[in-house]
Hints:
alpha+beta, single chain, 5 helices, 15% strand
Amino acid sequence: MFDGRKQRVRGLWKRGLVYYGRFAATNHSGRTRDTFRALESLTVPGAKTELQALRDAAASFNIPVQGRTPTFADYSKRYLVEVSANKRPATHRKERKQIAWWAARIGAQPINWVHRSNVNTGIADLTKSGLSPRTCNL
């Protein structure tokens, strides 16, 4: 991408009508990664200032960088801690029991690898064990 003086603007691209910026961001573990973001500006000067603002925010660790996807077991632990204050104790006990069953089945898989087929297989196993359909769907 070139500015008004025909000088190249590093880290700025345009695809169709959208400007994209590339900059280095450091995640919480200290690893630096190139990050690409769509910019909201519709002009080159606006995109340059927006890209510079993103670079400044990345330098001060204000921009989240996507890291590894947590496993189902890790995420379920975090979920139970965060949600426990908002639920009744009986509901919390039931959810803990159900999540423990699912964690034993698919706990080692990253969340983004859990598919509908995994859920359908689990529900089928619950149905085969003699539970009612309503219990299986919960």
